[in-house]
Structure prediction request, 379 residues.
Amino acid sequence: MKKIAILGSTGSIGTQTLDVVDMHPEHFQVEALAAGGNTDLLIEQARRYQPKKISVGSKELADKIAPHVPAGTKVYYGSEGLIEVAAGTDADTVVTAVVGSVGLESTLAAIESGKQIGLANKETLVTAGHIVMERAVAKGVSILPVDSEHSAIFQCLNGENRSSVAGITLTASGGSFRHLTREQLQQVTVEDALKHPNWSMGSKITIDSATMVNKGLEVIEAHWLFGLDYEQIDVLLHPESIIHSYVEFEDTSIIAQLGTPDMRVPIQYALTYPDRMPSPAKRLSLAQIGQLHFREMDMDRFPCLRMAYECGKMGGTATTAFNAANEVAVARFLRKEISFLKIEDIIASVLEAHQNVDNPDLEQIAACDQDSRKLASVL
Ligand SMILES: NC(=O)C1=CN([C@@H]2O[C@H](COP(=O)(O)OP(=O)(O)OC[C@H]3O[C@@H](n4cnc5c(N)ncnc54)[C@H](OP(=O)(O)O)[C@@H]3O)[C@@H](O)[C@H]2O)C=CC1
Ligand SMILES: CC(=O)[C@@H](O)[C@H](O)COP(=O)(O)O
Ligand SMILES: [Mn+2]
Prediction:
């Protein structure tokens, strides 16, 4: 029986993690759950899974839900509540599925208390990858990727000698606007941007996918997870999202991981590794699909990916600034305050103003994050 805690249990990854639990109730026990503001769903989850601890975004929400959850479930709130859920139970594994760099503190707390991490929250590694990885190594904690591309790479590397890896390729669907020219992007709406062609995901990552920021974050995430140079990490447009990513070895062999686009597969693998278990995902039939398509990535069409590579190579606080600017810009786009193309303008302007700090500590990262957010919110 594996005991798990979920940070972001009411979101896309959180609810699919609970689907995996439902598929294998004899294998998993839910110890703790954290959410932001979706109290109805959190109450439902608390009643169903009877966790020892839950947390919501604010004290008001905690007071509101307390009378409605099981007697054995303690209610916490805010960033301290998130840390309590991450580190304050007997959970073996914490699935980090909150959205944004708000997940950093609780991920570090989980690592500090020796929990294995099922990492969906890529912004944490983008913001402070060197600190997260260093602390995980020091604590002997595994960080198991949930992100589909990174799970694919992790699976392809299983049993391989890491020194024989020539490079990896992350596949990208191209997002909601992959058929549009930059000219046509001037007119797009929030509603259209939220229609991802292959995956059903939360709103922030769906916009990130359309701007190609998501792939930029994933390149940086791969750098930290697999210890690869940026020159060894490539991105390929693959509209069907069937090949989830692949590894090329020094003998020119390529090992890829394929499957229908269903996040329950990588989520489950992160929870059962090194074992596998049956999954409700639809089986892949290449015969039915017939053809797969690939296109070289066009950095002029998707400048956010170029900026992500530049920040990753620069290191220091550059990736923190990139991430923070993007989080604010996407939130503003979702509130319909700015146009779609303004997202990349804001990121570029924040990076232009950014003063890089090498090998930053957590305080310097927090300062960069705050400054970048402040600037991004007024541009
Ligand atoms: N969705 C996907 O398929 C994939 C997602 N990821 C990554 O996983 C992460 C989660 O994405 P996704 O599930 O799509 O996002 P969603 O927006 O669907 O869910 C986010 C979750 O985080 C919670 N949350 C947000 N802010 C806070 C906060 N301050 N304190 C506590 N909880 C908070 C939300 O709670 P509430 O709703 O109650 O407010 C919700 O449960 C992201 O980093 C994303 O990049 C990676 C690969 C695939
Ligand atoms: C499911 C998943 O892992 C997402 O991060 C996905 O990668 C988004 O798709 P694209 O970024 O390729 O559009
Ligand atoms: Mn992904």
Observations:
- The chain has a mean pLDDT of 97.
- Residues 166 and 250 are 5 Å apart (CA to CA).
- The chain has two domains: 2-145, 159-262+287-314.
